[in-house]
Design a protein that fits this description.
Blueprint: E1 16-21, E2 24-30, E3 36-41, E4 46-48, H1 55-70, E5 76-81, H2 87-95, E6 102-107, H3 111-121, H4 129-143, H5 147-160, E7 163-166, E8 178-183, H6 197-207, E9 208-216, H7 221-229, E10 232-234, E11 247-251
Parallel strand pairs: 5-6, 5-8, 6-7, 8-9
Antiparallel strand pairs: 1-2, 2-3, 3-4, 9-11, 10-11
């Protein structure tokens, strides 16, 4: 699924570009830290892919810190649900710049987003060309890594099979031991199935490695209790910007 956050109402006062792709209308939004995001519209609802306070800032707070928690492992496997504008993937690559042995698996149901990213990486015309230039530039400046080196690192990961981009995420996927689970699907209002604990918790039991961190923007009582029952240590921490709490749980440490 797409990586979506976190509120379902109209946003005013942002520069916007309209795009109509697949069954959702997508509106490019510039968030308050200058990083772009997307506002998705269905017939019944709408949802911003990141917090309007900052797509980059939120990614680093929710998911960058999770990657830091496991970057000392000799080998690690990162799961990103979902790809979106590839913020989590860029965060992983930059945080793990000196790391020699890691894999990333990304899921994304919106085919146009995958195609746009691959086009940009291969320096071909992309419908989100300007947005990717901005996002990559932000990561380049923040981590002091040349933009073209970041682009090449992502291309190399794809070519070597160490980064796999798959379609829509499903709880029926084959078990795989993940060390970092960056769980960023639709909010429950937009996609209730992704947050059904009867499916999520058994999936976690089968897919969390011995050392694993689970991080997501949402905080739900049933999820908290379920993570504890699976052996995770739940760390209470504030959510990003206006959100009261987020989920940050560690297993094996």
């Amino acid at each position: 699924m797409m990586g979506f956050v976190h509120f379902c109402f109209a946003i005013a006062g942002f520069s916007a570009i309209w795009l109509l792709v697949s069954y959702l209308k997508k509106q490019v939004i510039e968030t308050e830290d200058g990083s772009p995001s997307l506002l998705f519209h269905s017939q019944e609802d709408q949802q911003l892919m990141h917090s309007y306070k900052g797509a980059f800032s939120e990614t680093e707070y929710i998911y960058g810190m999770a990657i830091e928690e496991v970057k000392d492992l000799e080998t690690l496997h990162i799961l990103s649900v979902g790809l979106g504008f590839a913020y989590s993937e860029l965060s992983a690559v930059c945080h793990l710049w000196e790391h020699k042995d890691y894999q990333i698996t990304s899921y994304e149901s919106e085919k146009d987003l995958v195609e746009a990213l691959l086009a940009y990486l291969n320096q071909q015309p992309s419908i989100y060309q300007d947005q990717y230039e901005k996002i990559f530039s932000i990561y380049s400046e923040h981590f002091k890594i040349p933009l073209e080196k970041i682009r090449q690192r992502l291309k190399d990961l794809l070519a070597s099979g160490r980064w796999k981009i798959l379609g829509a995420f499903s709880f029926q996927t084959s078990p795989n031991p993940y060390n970092a689970i960056l769980f960023d699907p639709f909010c429950a209002r937009f996609h209730q199935q992704a947050w059904q604990m009867s499916q999520l918790l058994p999936w976690l039991e089968n897919n969390a490695a011995r050392i694993c961190i689970f991080s997501t923007y949402a905080a739900k009582g049933e999820l908290k209790r379920g993570l504890k029952n699976l052996g995770f240590r739940y760390e209470k921490r504030p959510g990003f910007a206006y959100k009261r709490e987020s989920t940050f749980a560690i297993k094996g440490r």
